[in-house]
Structures are given as structure tokens and as C-alpha cells.
């Protein structure tokens, strides 16, 4: 697993207070990890801060799963 | 009841009559207060009156007409207190009165900027931490004219009505995290802002107040102290009218 993936996972565990084993790439923040809409906004803000990236609103809306977040951040970092 | 021991409270416009009373009251209830405003010397003297020994009182000047200053103030207040913010009191405000047909854009814009945009920016900055910590209290000081309107105050009454609507929205957004957002709408309070009224105007206003007197800054401060207390934890999105009965919306 990449460094980015590890860090994303850690943020999700910390923020949503879920068990690490549940934070699989396919896990949906809302459907599987019990996040509400405010949690997803806070997660995006936490990612922005942790990775020094800006995630615009239309991109943030598409980040539904752990993998979505990792992919988006990896793409930004590679660019 | 209503103790605020250990709480960190930022009060904007703390150099004014109502703001100073709010800061003094919250400090008296045990809170650490951060006094903000544009006039450093006045803030220093208010802080010295509130806490002669300097304990639990800090001064963080800011000019809220500068968008960056509003964003930076929450961080500066937390740095001064050495702890995250529990309470935000949006009290700073100004008036640029005039009949609408003669009101200049700059008078409209300045009131919107300082009385509505700056409180929004402060709420936004404070909410980030409050939501994360799952606790917090925001009280914004609006005005009776935000509900009733007032000839000569199209800008001020629009900004204060806006503050009420904004607070209801924020209350809905923040409720799931235990953060409450409320408004206190003062009526006719004796301050520098109302001292400029002519005697005839004053008498006419007094005739419309069932409780028969002008408000004192402490009347407003007591309402704020209640809304920021733990005991008011099931009140959010409301506007508490503190006006001697002048309007009963």
C-alpha cells in the first residue's frame, strides 16, 4: 500500500472512529463507515490539510469511497 | 448554574458598551475571554477593568472590514488563550444610517461587510474546530431592526436580518455535533450608538417600550451568558429578543 493510502486510511480511522479493518479501498464513507454529510466535508478538509492539496467542490462530491480519495490525491500529487 | 469555568470565549466589538459588558459577564462566570475590536487602547483598558490581575483576559485587536483579519482572528484568539475556542460572540457592528434614496453603495457595502460578512467568516473559522471537538457555542448580536425594519437603516436592518437567517442555517449544519448557534436581538440599549439620537426621538422610542426604560448593556450580556452556558444546550437557531417588550415577534 502506498504512503498516501496509509495516510488516508489513518485519517479515516481517526475521524470516523471506525476499526482499521473496516477501512477497505471499496468502503463507502456514508454506506459502510457511518459518515454523515458533515463527516464527508470534514474528511475532505482533513485530506486537504494533510496532503496540502485543494479539493474543489465538484471533485469532493465524487469522493465516495476510500479508494476515490486515494486515487484523487495520488493524481494530484503526481501532477 | 450558568458557570463557564474553563471555557474560552472570543468577543468581538469588546471595546463598545455591549461588547465590554458581555466580556465582563462571561469573565465573571469563569470564562477566559479574548477581547477583540479595532481600538487597542480601549480594549486594553476594558481588559484591565475586567481583570485587574490580568488573569483570563486577553486582547486581540482586529479590523473586521479586512476579510483576512476575520479569518486570522480565531487563530490569534486561540493562540492567546493557549486553548481552542468554546464560545464565539459576534458583537462587532457599525451603522451608516441614511434614507435609502440617498444611501451610497459604499455605506451599504461597508455595513454588509462588517455586520454580516465578517460574522460569517468568524463563524466559519470557529465552526471548523467546534465541529471537530463536538462542542461549541456561537451567539451573534443582531438587532430588533433586523426583525421590524427601521427607516434610515436599510443597510443595517438587512445585515441584521441576514445574521438571523445565517444563524438558523448554521444551527442546522452544526446541530449534529452538539454546537449551538443563536442570536440575541437587542432593542433600544444605552450605548454610544444610541447616544447620538435626538431627545425627541428618544422619548418617542421610550413610549413604545412596555418595560418603560432603555436597555443597559448588562441586560444583553445576561442573555448571552445564558445562551452560551451548558444549561442552554437544547436551544439552537433561535433569536432571543431583549428589548423591554418593544417588539414581540
Structure at a glance:
The complex is a heterodimer of chains A (79) and B (249). Chain A is an all-alpha fold and 79 residues long. Chain A has helices at residues 3-16, 37-51, 57-62, 66-78.
Please name the CATH architecture of chain A: Orthogonal Bundle
Going by CATH, the homologous superfamily of chain A would be: ACP-like
Strand content of chain B: 5-15%
Strand order of the largest sheet of chain B: 3-2-1-4-5-6-7
Please mark out the parts of chain A with pLDDT under 50 across 5 or more consecutive residues, or reply none: none
- In CATH, the topology of chain B is named Rossmann fold
Q: Biggest interface between protein chains, with counts per chain?
A: A-B, 4 and 6 residues
How does this structure look, described?
The complex is a heterodimer of chains A (79) and B (249). Chain A has helices spanning 3-16, 37-51, 57-62, 66-78. Chain A has 79 residues and is an all-alpha fold. Chain A has one domain (1-76): ACP-like (Non-ribosomal Peptide Synthetase Peptidyl Carrier Protein, Chain A, Orthogonal Bundle). In chain A, helix 1 runs antiparallel to helix 2 and helix 1 (3-16) packs across helix 4 (66-78). Chain B is globular. Chain B has 249 residues and is α/β, with parallel strands linked by helices. The interface between A and B is small, with 4 and 6 residues. Chain B: Pathway: Lipid metabolism; fatty acid biosynthesis. Chain B: Homotetramer.
Amino acid at each position: 500500500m502506498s504512503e498516501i493510502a496509509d495516510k488516508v486510511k489513518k485519517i479515516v480511522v481517526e475521524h470516523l472512529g471506525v476499526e482499521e479493518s473496516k477501512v477497505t479501498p471499496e468502503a463507502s464513507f456514508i454506506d459502510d463507515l457511518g459518515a454523515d454529510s458533515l463527516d464527508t466535508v470534514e474528511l475532505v478538509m482533513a485530506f486537504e490539510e494533510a496532503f496540502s492539496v485543494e479539493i474543489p467542490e465538484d471533485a469532493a462530491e465524487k469522493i465516495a469511497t476510500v479508494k476515490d480519495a486515494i486515487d484523487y490525491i495520488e493524481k494530484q500529487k503526481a501532477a | 448554574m450558568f458557570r463557564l469555568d474553563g471555557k474560552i470565549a472570543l468577543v468581538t466589538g469588546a471595546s463598545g458598551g455591549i461588547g465590554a459588558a458581555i466580556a465582563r459577564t462571561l469573565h465573571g462566570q469563569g470564562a477566559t475571554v479574548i477581547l477583540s475590536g479595532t481600538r487597542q487602547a480601549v480594549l486594553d483598558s476594558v481588559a484591565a477593568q475586567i481583570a485587574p490581575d490580568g488573569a483570563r483576559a486577553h486582547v486581540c485587536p482586529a479590523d473586521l472590514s479586512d476579510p483576512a483579519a476575520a479569518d486570522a482572528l480565531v487563530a490569534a484568539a486561540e493562540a492567546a488563550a493557549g486553548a481552542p475556542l468554546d464560545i464565539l460572540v459576534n458583537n462587532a457592528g457599525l451603522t451608516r444610517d441614511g434614507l435609502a434614496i440617498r444611501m451610497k453603495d459604499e455605506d451599504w457595502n461597508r455595513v454588509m461587510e462588517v455586520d454580516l460578512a465578517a460574522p460569517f467568516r468568524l463563524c466559519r473559522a470557529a465552526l471548523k474546530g467546534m465541529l471537530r471537538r463536538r462542542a461549541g457555542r456561537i451567539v451573534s448580536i443582531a438587532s430588533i431592526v433586523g426583525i421590524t425594519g427601521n427607516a434610515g437603516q436599510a443597510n443595517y436592518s438587512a445585515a441584521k436580518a441576514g445574521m438571523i437567517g445565517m444563524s438558523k442555517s448554521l444551527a442546522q449544519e452544526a446541530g449534529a455535533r452538539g454546537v449551538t448557534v443563536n442570536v440575541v436581538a437587542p432593542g433600544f440599549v444605552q450605548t454610544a450608538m444610541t447616544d447620538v439620537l435626538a431627545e425627541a426621538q428618544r422619548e418617542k422610542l421610550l413610549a413604545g417600550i412596555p418595560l418603560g426604560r432603555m436597555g443597559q448593556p448588562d441586560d444583553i450580556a445576561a442573555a448571552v451568558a445564558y445562551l452560551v452556558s451548558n444549561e442552554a444546550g437544547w436551544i439552537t437557531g433561535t433569536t432571543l429578543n431583549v428589548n423591554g417588550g418593544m417588539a414581540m415577534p
